[in-house]
Design a protein that fits this description.
The complex is a heterodimer. Chain A is elongated, with a radius of gyration of 16 Å. Chain A has a three-stranded antiparallel β-sheet with strand order 2-1-3, covered by helices on one side. Chain A is built from two helices and three strands. Helices cover about 35% and strands about 30% of the residues of chain A. By secondary structure, chain A is α+β, with helices and mostly antiparallel strands. Chain B has a single domain, classed as 3-Layer(aba) Sandwich (Rossmann fold). Chain B contains five helices and eleven strands. Classes of the chains: A alpha+beta, B alpha/beta. Chains A and B meet through α1 of A and loops of B.
Chain lengths: ~80, ~230
């Protein structure tokens, strides 16, 4: 199964890439842009048939390695 | 007495650390990251570099290197453990120190001497220094921006576990003197017991006159004194 993991910096913690990109978008005239947040998308192929089981395994991978739970949030999406 | 200087694939400051310890008259041995027994060492240094290419996040892969189980065991046993730059990032990822290091505020790699102020002497990093000392030491990092949830930073401050803070040459902690945007200008911290410490600047690069500063020596001397004080072979 293909699983998409989206990792983002926790709200309230420094996100220098987001701040810099926000500034650049405003320089380009996109004044409607509010906060910009950077993140990372990791696609993992996992052997398994039970989507819930695969979801739980990948969430465990996020806790242990793929994300740093101290500073990052993650979302796991089983794409099938 | 010997100190283990851990080498991960991509570590690049190990020889600088061994040399600087040698200048202090201390013998140090390189320890490959696959080693699982460092019991013969009286102290462990995780030096700077780009362990495992810093893939995923700085220190994220390194924390699972076999040697880290042994480093955690020694840390728990009270052995002095020091993380410099990438080593600090690894100690944070490993959960031996709180928080994390992320990209510098201005998205610039900072490679220049900066100033830090000694905030506490309750650690293997600062025991030989004096609170208020201002040290001029090179910083060399892109991910040197210390962040942690606000409650964790407050707890660190409350417990007096901030060891070094970025400051200007007079010792004043100001925003322009904070080279990377670190929360509370934190440059170095320690665990509750004080035997595990990490810092972003490189004291080994400020340990001889020929390097332009000897201000880093007091930090390395603190570490060596702590290592000398405990028996090896635990």
């Amino acid at each position: 199964m293909k699983v998409r993991v989206s990792i983002t910096r926790k709200a309230g913690l420094s996100d220098p890439e987001g701040v810099e990109t926000h500034r650049a978008l405003h320089d380009l005239g996109y004044d409607e842009v509010g906060d910009v947040h950077f993140g990372r998308i990791i696609t993992v192929e996992v052997a398994g048939k039970d989507a819930a089981e695969v979801q739980a395994r990948v969430e465990e991978m996020c806790e242990r390695l793929l994300a740093n739970p101290v500073i990052e949030d993650y979302a796991v999406e089983v794409l099938g | 007495m010997t100190i283990a200087v851990v080498v991960f694939p991509g570590t690049n400051c190990e020889h600088d650390v061994v040399h600087a310890l040698g200048v202090l008259g201390v013998s140090a041995d390189l320890a490959w990251h696959r080693e699982t027994d460092l019991a013969g060492a009286s102290g462990v240094v995780l030096p700077g570099g780009f362990a495992h290419g810093d893939y995923l996040r700085t220190g994220a892969i390194a924390r699972f290197s076999p040697v880290m189980t042994e480093v955690a065991r020694l840390a728990e046993a009270g052995c002095p453990v020091l993380g410099i730059c990438n080593g600090f990032q690894i100690l944070c990822e490993a959960g031996l120190l709180p928080g994390a290091l992320v990209a510098n505020r201005d998205l610039r790699f900072v490679c220049r001497p900066i100033h830090v102020r000694v905030e506490s002497t309750d650690s293997v990093l600062t025991a030989a220094a004096t609170v208020g000392d201002v040290l001029r030491i090179p910083l060399n990092s892109y991910e040197g921006n210390y962040v942690a949830p606000a409650a964790d930073v407050a707890a660190l401050e409350e417990a007096g576990r901030v060891m070094l803070r970025y400051c200007d040459p007079s010792g004043a902690v100001t925003d322009p003197a904070n080279p990377n945007g670190s929360m509370n200008a934190i440059a170095g911290i320690a665990n509750a017991a004080g035997n595990v410490a990490g810092l972003m600047p490189h004291p080994e690069r400020a340990s001889e006159e020929i390097l332009g500063s000897t201000d880093g020596r007091v930090l390395l001397e603190s570490f060596v004194a702590a290592a000398t004080a405990i028996p090896a072979g635990r």
